[in-house]
Each structure stands twice: as structure tokens, then as C-alpha cells.
Design brief:
The complex is a heteropentamer.
Chain A (H helix, E strand, L loop, with lengths): L1 H19 L6 H26 L7 H17 L5 H24 L2 H21 L1 H4 L5 E2 L5 E2 L2 E2 L3 H24 L1 H11 L1 H6 L4 H27 L1 E2 L6 H14 L6 H15 L7 H15 L4 H30 L1
Antiparallel strand pairs in A: 1-4, 2-3
Helix pairs in contact in A: 2-7, 2-8, 2-10, 2-11, 2-12, 3-4, 3-5, 3-10, 4-10, 8-10, 11-12
Chain C lengths: L1 H31 L6 H17 L4 H28 L4 H22 L15 E4 L2 E4 H23 L1 H11 L1 H6 L4 H27 L6 H14 L5 H21 L8 H12 L14
Antiparallel strand pairs in C: 1-2
Helix pairs in contact in C: 1-5, 1-6, 1-8, 1-9, 1-10, 2-3, 2-4, 2-8, 2-9, 3-8, 5-6, 6-8, 9-10, 10-11
Chain E lengths: L4 E7 L6 H20 L8 E7 L4 H13 L4 E3 L4 H14 L3 E3 L14 E3 L4 H15 L4 E7 L2 H16 L3 E8 L7 H9 L4 E5 L2 H13 L6 E3 L1 H4 L1 H7 L7 E4 L8 H14 L5 H20 L7 H5 L3 E2 L11 E3 L5 E2 L2 E7 L2 E8 L5
Parallel strand pairs in E: 1-2, 1-3, 3-4, 4-5, 6-7, 6-8, 8-9, 9-10
Antiparallel strand pairs in E: 10-14, 11-12, 12-13, 14-15
Helix pairs in contact in E: 1-11, 2-3, 4-5, 7-9
The chains are: A mainly alpha, B alpha/beta, C mainly alpha, D alpha/beta, E alpha/beta.
Bound molecules: adenosine-5'-triphosphate (2 copies) and magnesium ion (2 copies).
One adenosine-5'-triphosphate sits at the interface of chains B and D.
Chain lengths: 329, 245, 291, 248, 358
């Protein structure tokens, strides 16, 4: 099919751009690109929990924080990078699993509330438990990792490192949502009661959706710490969770590539708007509002609607033809 | 010749890009019961939604007693004496049964004595009186349908649109509803009804209408349709010989 | 005891404001499934309308009226027409995100156009203190409380006793069915937006003398309204009141008797206990049957 | 005498002060088609919900193959080969008709882990297509289920119940809103599955013609209690049943 | 070479620190405009660019990186100590002077060599306050009410250390949230501890709210604080509840000093509100850069940090510096400060506390 060929070509161009364009950027540009890759991973996790499985979570930012703190604390304690990374993923997976339990009892806005409270609590723990987190002063003094003799110290090196991580996370995600699990997650979102009566173990899938989504957040956080090389509580407030939520929705919730676009808008767009000085956030907010008014189902939602509309037109024409045929019969 | 109370002409309507009705045309005569039958997905419910202004007609016209009501809002139609009981569940599930009934009269003009009418309906459907304080969403499927039908009787319609009233009703309740419909006709009210329970429905009807693929396939006296072997075979589950799997 | 009364009164006054804002929040949710993340900013903005009016030399009562009118226009009519209407059919979250962007927009605009500084805001309520059982209670607190409760009672009466109010409630319950029954759903939704605008304006006029008029003043308030609405069951005006008052009081008591460091989370967790115990919220009804 | 597949013992269900099901007992034998009839609100759907674990019964027991399965979750019941349909429409609106059906079957293939590594459709596309054809939904296979008409959704709901090749299916008013021709078709299908595969059915239905033609035995409920049980002919002639349910 | 001298200010222009950052930015703009109007530095105009950290240290670090990529003459900001701490290594690596607003004690102890304050650090102000509480007020028990961010926490840690060292007990340690509106609970807690004095370390608006609540609950013990407790802004917001509050102030527009008053007036004319101490920091910062450059006699990016170190700037020669000022080798400032009271809605300076190094 020519469309799929076109898509493949487009994909290759994008991948090539992600690899080569940063070579032309200054350090700051590279930093922003790295941040984009990391936020995409975090948003991808939320997209699983929210977009696919329909479980509203306002705690994804907290999981990014948990991942970042795990890595920062362990690295300053001298554990290298890889063990803390694995541990960050395990911890956020486990905590995400636990956070899934309330979701078995309450839904929608109540769930939003529970996750919001969790997010608040996590922030306060980061800030108040100085013995562990150094409190408001934050943790410094850990370095970016190296692997197989390759150091990821320089910005561009670290960028490729995060890009690799993004590729890995995307591959995992693609595989997951295209497996029967992906369908079960959607079933959870669409009609949990019917799903249950079809043998879908909604409890386990709900917990899984939370745990895997959170672990993706933790993974993102584990990369965020060495990117910034300093961790303090302020980035991990509710604002980050809301920002990630925005990325998911604006990109197109429940679409695989939604988080990529959403994170581009959430991370890159404000930077491009910096020329507007004090007005840049105003312009940014206006842009997001206009975008959502034009594409309420997210950017990819609109693309899909367009494709669906074309299919529907064909079906509609067929129905009209059949209907006209009836008169002659 | 009498004027039709409702006349639907060349209606084209649908959902988004999908056109479901491809020029539907039919009439309903005053003081008659007209039953619409047709396969699932023919567009029967879509016609009703379009008549009642819940769906936009792209082209075509709908006239009620000579007035053009194409794409008029439900509020206006209710005021003119149209009434509509849709398919599926259309109640306020969180309110109790009595409040649901009261809200049924919300658009009635001030001179209508709604409490009195509610009393009359409750007389007719004692189940609803018994469950008056129960949250409507917890009623059984059939009871919810009854509530909806009861609610529509609060206003004085001159034309009732009823979409498959018999779904979920016990045989006794179906008889009850059909006899109410007959009483309405006796009072001069016209009824346009969709029924899959087509034999019983056609038996009490004056006219019948077969809809297929969004078009009026046949319109005739109900009795004629009932006896038409083609109708029986295609739509009434008559003597069909399917190649069994 | 004296301290307790002090805390209780302060909590009730703050809680009454939360309740006002939460009611508006609940109304918007009911009629149009709008989760307004800019609700806090909606409380912040009217104060600046008034300040602007005062700056051009209007007397306070007139300025308040102008503030109210502008709020109804901007936060009621324009908000609905420009943002909510185009998105209404597309589910809860896109609109919620849109209001998040709106909250950034309002905050930043006020900051750029007015200033990042807090400004004092004149009170139209009496000041001073009252002695009650040995505790000094601010008259302002009491009048805020009384004012807010009166507004709520008036609203409740309107909703239950008038035909328009009942039509609004029908819309809130199920717009599709309401439309079937002949309710002019669009107009009812517009009314709720106007009522919400009036409520936030009132909250703004009551609270700004205490909170000060500042571009960021809405941040905590919006969140509090959201929480109060949820605790109250999200679809119950009574619930929103109880949720608001509860949140205000618990927040104060928790800060005084449990932990100031964890002040932000303790009330939330107490309220979560409420929700897990009664998943439908404090005053909400049991979920309808689904099968 | 065939063996008992499902045994319902003294199920009672109350909601607050309302008793919806009041001590109902009956058994379902392997390979039969049991009808359950009764006036509106007599507790039929509630009984189904109690049997399948959707609601916890206030009292009573449910035995499947002699095992006590009271209070098991619906998914567990389903995995033991009992599937159901719903009275009110219950489909997955955003999924296509085919996806709805694949979903209905996938949880019966392998375990959660093997499904993760298996093919995307869990190998169910052919089965799904076959069922789609049977229910005459072929032209709608790739449509979103939410856009189907009432009767079509009803059929899809029934189709989903058959996807996993269940031993027993509980159908809650399958005929409501379904075109008569299609209904005849459905009836044949049920009968064929019953005779060829020995599948067992319990059917709630108000369409008496359908019940009388199809069912081997009928249980009648009224006000939460069982008032009669027997062959269709016996039940139809029973005065209590006529008074409570059938009318004249 | 007549190209403008480029200064990049990385500040908290949105988010919780917006008030801090905006004051800093506005005053820096004011100073730049003044200097440019008088012909610039060594005949070259200054061009200042502002970048918004959104009050987030991660972003701050990235923006300082961005600033360095653009090779500015000097960097100003950020104002949050955490943001300063993460970004300072980058500036140090590039050898570019960073004139910032953070007050945390440790910043200048980390040995970056390119980091300069624009105000007293907490390590200079807190000892003076602790001394006042212990010696002048003779307080034995003190309640500390502080805002739980890096500003408040730093001050609280420092004052606690200094007070304990002087044998004063911390009777209540009360953390509050930035932006908190309701101080009823906190005041109850402070009151219950029966302190001889209350030390209040909050941002201006919260200070005003706390003062009002303290008055309402009838607290009469001395209320001691820093600039953020008794500044004009607080007095304006708190009304007569501010009366009796006292504290140590580095620089305020109300100080008995003509240069300061002139600055305050110019600022108000331009921006229509009273600047707080963050404003003074931004203003001073620009003039510090100017003075150091003129001392070098050339615009030398790499030489600037060294020129700043050990520099003493006299207000008589450079009125923009507001008061005589010495920068030490760590980048800390030394100059006179004041002890002031609020009386009848006015800040009254009771005592001038001399430079420490004198
Ligand atoms: N909301 C909708 N969105 C998209 N398509 C729809 C929608 N509702 C109905 N359709 C399509 O319109 C067609 C006609 O639907 P309609 O509900 O009018 O059928 P019907 O004749 O009432 O069938 P039934 O007897 O099953 O109720 C169907 O093919 C259905 O797929
Ligand atoms: N959640 C609930 N709360 C209160 N009452 C309930 C609830 N669910 C069901 N009921 C009541 O239980 C009774 C039985 O309901 P059920 O749905 O089982 O009836 P049914 O036999 O299926 O009727 P129908 O033929 O109309 O579908 C009804 O009177 C209903 O009002
Ligand atoms: Mg229909
Ligand atoms: Mg039922």
C-alpha cells in the first residue's frame, strides 16, 4: 500500500532528523532535545495508564520524581548508574501497582483525587525527609553514566543515550499495546463491566496499567536525574503531572505517537516562543487552547478522524447505492 | 381526502460523514396507528430522531399538520403536540421515579395540571407508584421502559412517536401498552411506532411501513402488509430457509 | 478550647469560600462536563476587574458591580462561547486540559498587564473582632461565612423552587433526556456559566481583602475547589458545601494538631478515607446500576 | 438423566429494604435450554447477576459442576466456561465489531504471560470472522460498535458470548429489538450449538413464541420467588403463571 | 569596538518565584536604562536579555547553559538558591561572572570563584538577628515561623544554629507553605509554645497575612524578622498589624539614605509599585558589574570575576551602588545594615549596624 510506504518514509526522515539535527545545535538545544526524549517516555507511560486503560492519573510527575530521586540518592551513595536505574524502575513499578488499588474501588474524578493526593504526598516527602532526600536543598554531585567504555558525559553523547532509551521504551510500548494486552487495556477504558464478564481480569489489568505506566515514569525520572545533574523537589510538583497530562491529551490520548507530539509541544514549543519574552507563556497557552479547539481529540485524533471519515464516506456511498438499487428490485 | 398529520419528504440524514437516510418519504394519517418495520440498521430510529429534531436533516422536509417542522428543536415540537419515546434508556437515572415523572411535564404550559396527570398515570401503572421513591436507575429494564412511556403520556400529544415500546416488557405489559396506544387513537391521537414485535404491532395498526436501507420500501394498510408473503418472508421471520451452518 | 474555636471559625470562613468556588465548579461539571482547572484563576480575575475600575476613579460599590458584570461577560459568556462550546462533545479531558491552558493564560496575562505584585484589595465587609467564649473571632470571617452561606441558600432555592432551576437540574442530570423533554439545554448551560461567574466574583470580592489580589492567588483556591467538589460527590450542591467547609476546617485543625510540614497532604488523606469509605462522595448517591 | 451443570440454592438478594430475589432455587442440567420468565422487576436480571458474581448474593449458594462458586468474580466464572449477554446494551463502543469479538475470545487463549508474547489477535480472527458472518454483521466488521443500531448491538452482544466456545451461556433478553427474521436465525444457531456441541443455555425472555419454541424447560419467577417450573406447555397452562405473567 | 555589552539575566519570571524574579528583572532593566542614558560602560551600551526559569532549577541550569552558549559578558540571576547552586558550576567552568540573588549561606562557601551576591547572605544577616534576640530582647524561647522553600529553609536553619549557639531555645518550629493564605493554625501553634519572641521568615505577602493573624489572636511578644517582615510592601499590605514588628534590614527603599530613596522613586515611576529587596538586588547587580568593569578599564569577560573580588565601591563615586559596599573574595557583600521597627505604619531605623569587616 502506498500509504504505508509513505508512512515508512516519513518515519525514516523523522528518525534521521532526531539523529542528525542535534549535531547542529548548541548545548542548550541539545539539552532541550534530551528533555523532550525523557518527557516523551514519561508521557508514554501516562498514555498507557490514561489513554489506553482509561485510568485518570495525576501522579505521573511523582513517579518521574521517584525515579529521579532513586537514581540521585543511590548514585551519590556510590552505586554507579545501572543498578539505580533498574531499582528506579522496580520501585516505581511496585508503587504504581499499589496506587492501582484505589483504582479498583473508585474511578474518574475520585481516582484523579486519590492520585493527586499521592502526588502531593510524594512532593512533601521529597521536601521534608531531609535525611534521605536532602530536602529543599536538593542532591548534587552525581555524574552522567558510561557504558561499555563509552561515556555519556558530553551533552550530545547524553542526548544519544536518551534517544536510545526512548527507542527502547517505544519498542516496548509498541509491542505491549499491539499485544492482546493492549486490547484488554482498551476494554478496561471502554466498558469494564462487559470486559469482566468476558473473562478479562480487570483487576490485574488495572494494576498492570498503573504499574507499567508508572515504571515508564520512573524510567524517565532515572534519565532526568543525570541530565540535570541536580535533583530537588520543585520540578516534581503537581504541575509536572498536569503538564504530562496535557502532553498526552494534546498529542492524542490513546494513540501511540501522541506522546511524541505532545511532548514536543510541551517541551519544545515554549522554547521556540522565548523570543516573545514575558509573553511567551501567554502565547503558548493561547496556542494550546486554539490547538485543542481545532483538534479536540488531539493532533493524532484528528488525523485518525480524517482517515475514518474517508472510509465512512465510502461506506455511505455504498449504502446509498444499495438503497437506490432497492427501488429497481 | 384528509391531510396527513405528518408528512416526511425525501429526508437525507445521517451521522457525521455517514448518510443513513437516503430520501425517506412517508405520511401518517390523522387518528391512525402506523407501524414501521424493517431489518436492524435500516434507519428506523434514525428517522424518528430526525423528525424530533435530535438529528439534523440535510435535505428534505417534514411537515406536521401543515407546519414545516424540519430541524425544529424538541421544545417547539412538544409545544406543537409531538411526543417521542426513543429506543434505549432515556431517564434521569439518579433521580427517583416521581421526580422523573415530574420532569416529564417540565415543558408543559402552565395551565396543564401536571400533578393530576401524574396521578392518572400512576393509576395506570401501579408498579411505578410502588417504586415512586426508588432511584430510577435501579429499576429493572422493563420498569425503566414503562417509566418512559408513562412520562410521555403526561403531555397531550397529537402525534406520538414510539420506538420499539415492547422491548423488555412482559407480555402483559405489552398488551397494556398496546391498549393504551389504541385508546390514544380512539381520542384522535396519531401514533407512529417502530416494532420488531411486528405481527402483534401490525395487528393493531391501521397502516404499515417497511423501511430498508434508509428508504421507504413499502407503505400500505397494515393488514395488507401482514398478508403479503414477501413481507412475511423478508421481515417477519416467516418461512425462511437458511442454509444452516 | 479557645484555640479550637479560633481554628474552627477561621476554617469555616475559608471553607465557605471553598464551598462557593466548589459549587460553581460542580455546576459546570453537571451541565456541561466541564472540569474547570482555571476555577482558581476565575476567582483571581474579578478582583483585578474591580481594581481597574477603582483605578479609573469609580467608587467601591460601583466598581464591584462593574467587576461582577465583567466577570459574567468574560468568565461566563466568553468562556462558554469561545472555549467550552467547541469542545463540549469531545469528552472531559480535552476540555479540562484546555482550561489548564486558560489558567496559565489568565495568570500570565494579569502578571504582564498588571503586575507580579500583590495588591491590597478593599473590603466591603466590616472589620474588627468579636469576643466569643474567650476567643477573638474576626468579624470579617463571620461575615464571609454568612455571606457565602446566604448565597448558597439562595442558589439552592432557585434551583429547586423555580421552573428554570428545575430545568437546569434536568440538564445537569442528563442533557440528552432534558432536550427530549423540551428543555432548552443550551440556554440552561449558559445560565450555569453565568451563575458560576457570579459565584466566583462573589468569592473574589470576599476573599481578596484577605488573600490580596495577586496573579497567583488562584492556585491553591482552584485546587481546593476541585477537592471540595470531589469530596462532596461532584454532582451535589449540598455536597460541595460540606466538602468545602470540611476541607477548610480539616486543613486548619490538621496544621495545628498533626503536622505543618505535611499540611498539604494530611487533609487530602483524611478525605480519601471518606471517599474510600463512601465511594460516591460524602453527599453523593450510590452509583446507578450498570447491568 | 443428564448431570447437573449449575445449581442455584436459595439465592436471595436485597437492596436496602427491597428484596429483588427471594430465595430462588433451581438447577440447570447439562445440554438443556432453560427459559426464565416472569413479570418486569421480578428479579430475573438480578438473579443472573448473582449467579455470575456481578453482585454478591445476600444469601444462598451457586454450584457449578458441584463446586461452590458463590461470589467468584465474573471473569473467573467466564473462564470456567460460563458466558452471558446483557439486557441493556453492553459493547465496547470505540472498538470495531471484529475487535469486540476478538476481545471476547482472547482471555481464553493461554495465560496472561503467553498472550503477551503471542500474536496480536491471539489467533482469533478466523473465528471472529465466522461469527460476524453468521450474525450478518459482515458489512459492519470494521465499524465502531458504538455506531451500530440498537438491534445490531444486541446481536453483537450475543455474538461476543459465543466467541469463546462456552459450555453454558446465560442470555438476558436476547430477542429484544432483534428483527424477527434475524431472531429465527439466532434461534436456529442456539439449537444447533445445543445439539451439536452440547452447550447449555439459560434464557431470560419476554418473547413467548421464542421461549416456547426453544426451551426445554421453563422456570417462572414472580416477585422474587419461583412460582412454577416445567415444560413450556405445562407452564403456559399454569394458572398462577397466567395470572402473574401471561395475561388472559 | 562599540558593540553593546551583553548581560543575560536568568530569573524566576513565572511560577512560584515570579514576584522575586520580576522585581529583580525590573530593577536590572531600570539600572541598564540609567547607565545607557548616561553613555553606558566605558562608552559601550548594555544589552540585557531575560530568560525565565519557571522557578525550576532544572530549567535554570539549562538556561544558564544557553546563556553561556551565547557568550555574554556576565550572567545575572537566578534568585532561587537551588537554581543558583545547580547553575554556578557551569558559569565557573566558563569563567563567566554570575551576579545572583540567592541568599543561602552555603552558596559562596562552595568555592566557585565566579559567583557574587547582590545582598547579604543569610550567614551575615542571621547572626545579627540572633544576637539581637538573645542580647537585646533577652529571649529564652523563640518560635520560628518560616516558609518551606529554599529561601525560608536556609534562613531557618541558619537562625536556629545561631540562636542555639547563644543558648536560646527554639520553642516552636513552624513550617508554612509558599502562598499560604490562612495562618490561624500556625499562630495557634506559636502561641501555645509560649515564646518570648517570634522570628518570622516569610515572603512579603505571607508576612503580611501572618502579622494580621498574630494581631487578631492577640499575640504581644516581639515579632522579629528580616527585610521581608518590615518592608514597605508588608506594611502596606498588613496595615496596622505591622506595627511593632522589627528586624534586621540590609537595604530597603525606606532606609535613611538618599540614594535608596531616589532609586525607590524612579522604580515607582516606571513600574507603578514599590520594589522589594529583590528589586534592589537586581539594581545593585548591574552597578556592581559596571564598577568592576570601570576599575579594569576594559570590557574583559574573563577578568570580570577577579575585578569584582575584593572590590570596594563607594556610593559617593557611584550613586547607583546606593551604599558603600565591599565584595569579599568569596563573593559575599559587606556593608552597613540597619535595625528597624515599624511604628505607626512607618519603618523607623533605630540603629545602624556597621560593616562586619570594619
Ligand atoms: N450514533 C451513531 N453513529 C453512527 N452511526 C450510527 C449511529 N446510530 C446509528 N448508526 C447507524 O445508522 C444505521 C441505522 O441505525 P438505526 O438506529 O436508525 O437503525 P434501526 O433501523 O433503528 O435498527 P434497530 O432495529 O436495530 O433499532 C445503522 O447502520 C447504524 O450503524
Ligand atoms: N441496585 C438496585 N437498588 C435497588 N433496587 C434494585 C437494584 N437493582 C434492582 N433493583 C430492584 O430489583 C428488582 C428486580 O430487578 P431485575 O432487574 O432483576 O428485574 P427483571 O426481572 O430483570 O425485570 P425486567 O424483566 O424488567 O428486566 C426491581 O424491582 C428493581 O427495582
Ligand atoms: Mg432502532
Ligand atoms: Mg431484566
Amino acid at each position: 500500500m502506498s500509504r504505508s510506504l509513505l508512512l515508512k518514509a516519513l518515519g525514516l526522515v523523522v528518525i534521521a532528523a532526531l539523529i542528525f539535527v542535534p549535531l547542529t545545535l548548541n548545548r542548550y538545544g541539545i539539552y532541550i532535545m534530551s528533555l523532550w526524549a525523557i518527557m516523551t517516555i514519561a508521557a508514554m507511560g501516562l498514555n498507557l495508564t490514561l489513554g489506553y486503560a482509561g485510568q485518570v492519573s495525576l501522579a505521573q510527575g511523582a513517579f518521574v520524581g521517584l525515579g529521579a530521586y532513586t537514581v540521585a540518592i543511590m548514585m551519590t551513595a556510590g552505586f554507579g548508574f545501572w543498578l539505580p536505574l533498574v531499582l528506579a524502575i522496580i520501585i516505581t513499578f511496585a508503587v504504581g501497582w499499589l496506587l492501582g488499588y484505589p483504582a479498583l474501588r473508585v474511578q474518574h474524578h475520585y481516582l484523579a483525587f486519590v492520585t493527586l493526593a499521592f502526588s502531593t504526598l510524594v512532593f512533601l516527602v521529597f521536601r521534608n525527609e531531609e535525611w534521605l532526600t536532602k530536602g529543599i536543598y536538593g542532591i548534587m554531585g552525581f555524574k552522567r553514566p558510561s557504558a561499555f567504555g563509552v561515556s555519556f558525559q558530553k551533552p550530545i553523547e547524553f542526548y544519544y543515550f536518551t534517544l536510545g532509551a526512548l527507542a527502547l521504551a517505544s519498542a516496548f510500548m509498541a509491542w505491549l499495546v499491539r499485544s492482546p494486552w493492549g486490547r484488554a487495556f482498551v476494554a478496561l477504558r471502554e466498558n469494564p463491566i462487559r470486559a469482566l464478564s468476558l473473562g478479562v481480569d480487570t483487576r490485574r489489568y488495572t494494576l498492570m496499567a498503573f504499574a507499567i505506566g508508572s515504571a515508564m515514569g520512573g524510567f524517565a525520572g532515572a534519565l532526568y536525574a543525570p541530565l540535570v545533574e541536580f535533583i530537588d523537589p520543585t520540578p516534581f510538583t503537581l504541575a509536572l503531572s498536569l503538564n504530562l497530562l496535557m502532553m498526552v491529551i494534546v498529542g492524542g490520548s490513546g494513540f501511540f505517537f501522541g506522546p511524541f507530539l505532545g511532548a514536543a509541544i510541551g517541551v519544545l514549543l515554549p522554547e521556540w516562543l522565548r523570543f516573545a519574552h514575558g509573553w511567551y507563556l501567554i502565547i503558548y497557552a493561547l496556542f494550546v487552547m486554539l490547538l485543542l479547539i481545532k483538534t479536540p481529540t488531539g493532533i493524532l485524533g484528528i488525523v485518525e478522524n480524517m482517515i475514518a471519515a474517508r472510509k465512512t464516506r465510502a461506506a455511505s456511498a455504498a449504502r446509498a447505492a444499495a438503497s437506490a438499487g432497492l427501488d429497481k428490485a | 381526502m384528509t391531510q396527513p398529520v405528518l408528512s416526511v419528504r425525501d429526508i437525507v440524514a445521517g451521522y457525521g460523514e455517514m448518510t443513513i437516510l437516503n430520501g425517506t418519504t412517508f405520511d401518517v394519517m390523522p387518528g391512525t396507528i402506523t407501524t414501521v418495520i424493517g431489518p436492524n440498521g435500516a434507519g428506523k430510529s434514525t428517522v424518528f430522531k430526525t423528525i424530533f429534531g435530535m438529528l439534523k436533516a440535510r435535505t428534505g422536509s417534514i411537515h406536521f399538520k401543515g407546519t414545516d417542522i424540519t430541524n425544529a428543536p424538541p421544545r417547539k415540537l412538544l409545544a406543537l403536540g409531538l411526543c417521542y419515546v426513543p429506543q434505549g434508556r432515556n431517564i434521569f437515572p439518579e433521580l427517583n421515579v416521581l421526580s422523573n415523572l415530574e420532569l416529564g411535564g417540565i415543558a408543559a404550559s402552565a395551565d396543564v395540571n401536571i400533578p393530576q396527570r401524574i396521578e392518572a398515570v400512576l393509576e395506570r401503572f401501579p408498579v411505578l407508584r410502588r417504586k415512586g421513591q426508588q432511584q430510577a436507575g435501579t429499576l429493572s429494564g422493563g420498569e425503566q421502559k414503562l417509566l418512559e412511556i408513562a412520562r410521555s403520556l403526561l403531555l397531550d400529544p397529537q402525534l406520538m412517536l414510539i420506538d420499539e415500546p415492547s422491548i423488555g416488557l412482559s407480555p402483559m405489559m405489552v398488551q397494556e401498552v398496546f391498549s393504551i396506544i389504541k385508546e390514544l387513537r380512539a381520542k384522535g391521537v396519531s401514533v407512529l411506532m417502530i416494532e420488531q414485535n411486528a405481527r402483534s404491532a401490525l395487528e393493531i395498526s391501521d397502516d404499515g411501513l417497511v423501511l430498508e436501507l434508509g428508504r421507504t420500501r413499502m407503505q400500505d394498510r397494515a393488514q395488507t402488509l401482514l398478508n403479503d408473503p414477501r413481507v412475511g418472508q423478508l421481515f417477519l421471520g416467516g418461512v425462511i430457509e437458511e442454509k444452516s451452518a | 478550647m479557645m484555640n479550637f474555636i479560633n481554628l474552627l471559625m477561621a476554617g469555616l470562613a475559608t471553607g465557605a469560600i471553598y464551598a462557593l468556588v466548589a459549587i460553581g465548579f460542580t455546576l459546570l461539571w453537571q451541565t456541561s462536563q466541564t472540569i474547570n482547572f482555571a476555577q482558581g484563576e476565575f476567582v483571581m480575575v474579578p478582583a483585578f476587574f474591580v481594581l481597574a475600575a477603582l483605578n479609573v476613579g469609580m467608587p467601591l460599590p460601583l466598581a464591584l458591580l462593574v467587576g461582577l458584570a465583567l466577570s459574567m461577560l468574560v468568565l461566563g459568556v466568553l468562556f462558554k462561547r469561545l472555549l467550552v462550546d467547541p469542545m463540549l462533545r469531545h469528552g472531559v479531558l480535552p476540555l479540562a486540559i484546555c482550561t489548564m491552558a486558560l489558567s496559565i493564560f489568565l495568570k500570565e496575562t494579569v502578571k504582564e498587564v498588571y503586575s507580579a505584585e500583590a495588591s491590597p484589595f478593599p473590603s466591603f465587609l466590616p472589620g474588627g473582632n468579636l469576643n466569643l467564649l474567650g476567643a477573638t473571632i474576626s468579624i470579617q470571617s463571620i461575615s464571609i461565612f454568612v455571606f457565602a452561606i446566604c448565597a448558597v441558600v439562595a442558589l439552592q432555592t432557585f434551583l429547586t423552587k423555580t421552573s428554570t432551576g428545575r430545568q437546569m437540574q434536568a440538564t445537569a442530570q442528563n442533557p440528552y433526556v432534558a432536550k427530549l423533554l423540551g428543555v432548552p439545554v443550551e440556554r440552561m448551560i449558559m445560565y450555569t456559566f453565568l451563575i458560576n461567574a457570579a459565584l466566583v466574583a462573589l468569592a473574589s470580592f470576599l476573599i481578596s481583602p484577605v488573600y490580596l489580589a495577586k496573579f497567583s492567588a488562584g492556585e491553591t483556591l482552584g485546587l481546593a475547589a476541585f477537592i471540595a467538589a470531589i469530596v462532596g460527590g461532584f454532582n451535589q450542591i449540598r455536597g460541595a458545601i460540606v466538602g468545602g467547609l470540611l476541607l477548610g476546617v480539616i486543613d486548619n485543625l490538621a496544621a495545628a494538631y498533626i503536622s505543618t510540614q505535611y499540611r498539604g497532604a494530611v487533609p487530602l488523606f483524611l478525605l480519601i478515607a471518606v471517599i474510600l469509605f463512601r465511594p460516591q462522595g460524602l453527599m453523593g448517591r450510590a452509583e446507578e446500576r450498570t447491568v | 438423566m443428564t448431570r447437573t451443570l449449575l445449581e442455584v440454592q436459595g439465592i436471595r438478594k436485597t437492596f436496602g429494604g427491597i428484596t429483588a430475589v427471594d430465595g430462588v432455587s433451581f438447577e440447570v442440567r447439562e445440554g438443556e435450554i432453560l427459559g426464565i420468565i416472569g413479570p418486569n422487576g421480578c428479579g430475573k436480571s438480578t438473579l443472573f447477576n448473582c449467579i455470575l458474581g456481578q453482585l454478591p448474593p445476600t444469601e444462598g449458594k451457586v454450584l457449578l459442576d458441584g463446586d461452590d462458586v458463590t461470589g467468584l468474580r465474573p471473569s473467573e466464572m467466564n473462564r470456567r466456561g460460563v458466558s452471558r449477554t446483557f439486557q441493556l446494551l453492553q459493547v465496547f463502543p470505540q472498538l470495531s465489531v471484529r475487535e469486540n469479538l476478538i476481545l471476547a475470545g482472547q482471555e481464553h487463549k493461554g495465560t496472561m504471560v503467553t498472550r503477551l508474547f503471542g500474536p496480536r489477535d491471539a489467533g482469533l480472527t478466523p473465528d471472529a470472522n465466522q461469527i460476524i458472518e453468521f450474525f450478518r454483521l459482515g458489512h459492519l466488521a470494521d465499524e465502531k460498535a458504538g455506531g451500530l443500531s440498537y438491534g445490531q448491538q444486541k446481536l453483537l452482544d450475543a455474538a461476543m458470548a459465543f466467541m469463546a466456545g462456552p459450555r453454558m451461556v446465560l442470555l438476558d433478553e436476547p430477542a429484544g429489538g432483534v428483527n424477527l427474521t434475524m431472531l429465527g436465525h439466532l434461534e436456529e444457531r442456539l439449537r444447533a450449538m445445543n445439539t451439536e456441541r452440547g452447550a447449555t443455555f439459560v434464557v431470560i425472555e419476554h418473547n413467548m413464541d421464542f421461549v416456547m419454541r426453544l426451551c426445554t424447560r421453563v422456570v417462572v419467577l414472580a416477585e422474587g420467588k419461583k412460582i412454577a417450573e416445567g415444560t413450556p406447555a405445562e407452564v403456559r397452562a399454569n394458572q398462577a403463571v397466567i395470572d402473574a405473567y401471561l395475561g388472559h | 569596538n562599540n558593540a553593546p555589552i551583553k548581560i543575560i539575566n536568568v530569573g524566576e519570571l513565572s511560577g512560584p518565584g515570579a514576584t522575586v524574579g520580576t522585581n529583580f528583572k525590573n530593577s536590572a532593566d531600570l539600572a541598564v536604562a540609567e547607565i545607557n542614558a548616561k553613555g553606558g560602560i566605558l562608552g559601550r551600551k548594555i544589552e540585557i536579555v531575560h530568560l525565565d526559569t519557571q522557578s525550576n532549577p532544572g530549567v535554570a541550569r539549562a538556561l544558564v547553559q544557553k546563556a553561556i552558549d551565547e557568550n555574554p559578558y556576565a550572567i545575572m540571576g537566578p534568585g532561587y538558591s537551588g537554581s543558583v547552586k545547580v547553575s554556578a558550576p557551569l558559569a565557573a567552568q566558563a569563567g563567566i561572572a554570575q551576579v545572583m540573588g540567592g541568599e543561602a549561606a552555603e552558596l559562596t562557601q562552595l568555592g566557585f570563584g565566579t559567583l557574587f551576591r547582590t545582598s547579604f547572605g543569610q550567614q551575615s544577616s542571621m547572626p545579627k538577628i540572633a544576637k539581637y534576640i538573645a542580647d537585646n530582647l533577652k529571649a529564652k524561647n523563640v518560635a520560628v515561623i518560616w516558609v518551606n522553600n529554599d529561601f525560608g529553609k536556609g534562613g531557618r536553619d541558619m537562625v536556629t544554629k545561631e540562636l542555639t549557639a547563644r543558648g536560646v531555645k527554639i520553642a516552636a518550629d513552624i513550617s508554612t507553605e509558599a502562598g499560604q493564605a490562612d495562618f490561624a493554625a500556625d499562630v495557634v501553634k506559636a502561641k501555645n509554645a509560649n515564646p518570648d519572641a517570634i522570628f518570622i521568615y516569610l515572603n512579603e505577602e505571607e508576612s503580611a497575612r501572618a502579622l494580621r493573624e498574630l494581631k487578631r489572636q492577640g499575640v504581644t511578644v516581639p515579632l522579629v524578622g528580616e527585610t521581608t517582615l518590615i518592608g514597605q510592601k508588608v506594611i502596606e499590605l498588613a496595615g496596622d498589624a505591622a506595627n511593632g514588628a522589627r528586624g534586621h534590614i540590609g537595604l530597603t527603599v525606606d532606609a535613611p539614605n538618599d540614594n535608596l530613596k531616589a532609586y525607590g522613586k524612579k522604580f515607582q515611576e516606571k513600574y507603578n509599585y514599590i520594589p522589594d529587596h529583590n528589586g534592589i538586588k537586581g539594581y545593585l547587580g548591574v552597578y556592581m558589574i559596571k564598577a568592576a568593569t570601570e576599575k579594569m578599564g576594559k570590557v574583559d569577560q574573563k577578568g570580570l570575576p577577579d575585578a569584582l573580588k575584593g572590590l570596594t565601591i563607594l556610593a559617593a563615586q557611584e550613586p547607583g551602588i546606593l551604599m558603600d559596599l565591599t565584595i569579599d573574595k568569596n563573593g559575599d557583600l559587606d556593608r552597613d545594615s540597619f535595625l528597624a521597627f515599624v511604628e505607626n505604619g512607618k519603618q523607623i531605623v533605630k540603629e545602624t549596624l556597621p560593616k562586619m569587616s570594619k
